[in-house]
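Aim 2 progress update. The chain analyzed this quarter is reproduced below.
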Amino acid sequence: MADGAEDKVTGEDRRGGSPQSVTRVIRLLEALCASNDPVSLADLSRRLSTPKSSLAALLRGLADEDLVVSADGAWRLGPGAFGLGSALTEARRRLHSSDLIREGMRRLCERTGETVLLAVGDHEGDMVTYVDLVESRNVVRYSVSIGDRRPFYATAGGRALLATCSPEAIASYLKRVAPRRLASTTEIDLATLTQSIEQARADGYAQTVDQAADGVTGTASVIRDAAGGVVGALVVAAPTERAQGRLDELARLTLEEAASISRSLGFR
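Predicted structure tokens:
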């Protein structure tokens, strides 16, 4: 440099992805968004597990841009934050939710090598409908048409959606539909199905092997929007022969991508 000063590359500058300071700014703004009242520096430090000195420096920088303001020794969002929020809302309106979901579906298809579906429940609550898909490039792959419908109880997508319902609603559904075999190993025992759905609730995903059809393994996790509502179930559908030995991997990838899509839709 002309003045003889030496550039200093810190560990944060060398990190791939988001530097730690940027991550802290995001978490800081999220904490202020979640609070109805101004938040003290000490409180922010506890909530974010971050030293007060680091947060104070960030807050001063944000205050310079009117993103935050000091109020009686505490901090709240400033007018700049609301202007930024309006701009982001407009950008999100232009970039439709369906585009964000499909982008995530493509990523999951590339990561798994398998067909990826978006399943939604019908108004009666007895069937799932596949409303979008990204098909695997493998010669041997699971194939389904947009608009095809399957019973909730026999599909990974259906069980993932059921897992978001109350125990009473699940019990009512299972009694109403009287499960029947769609494949040689379709589970139709009500107690076992209930246990599978509860397991999906605990795990955050559902996985079925040869349930809706022989030779098909499904893995699904729900996508949520900014209000916490269920948009649908993200489903990876694979030939069972190829899925065996990688069930845990498929579950992890599906969970990760469903969470990523949900974040892009504003879910926190």
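Residues 27 and 48 are 7 Å apart (CA to CA). The chain has two domains: 11-93, 96-264. These observations will guide the mutagenesis experiments scheduled for the next reporting period.
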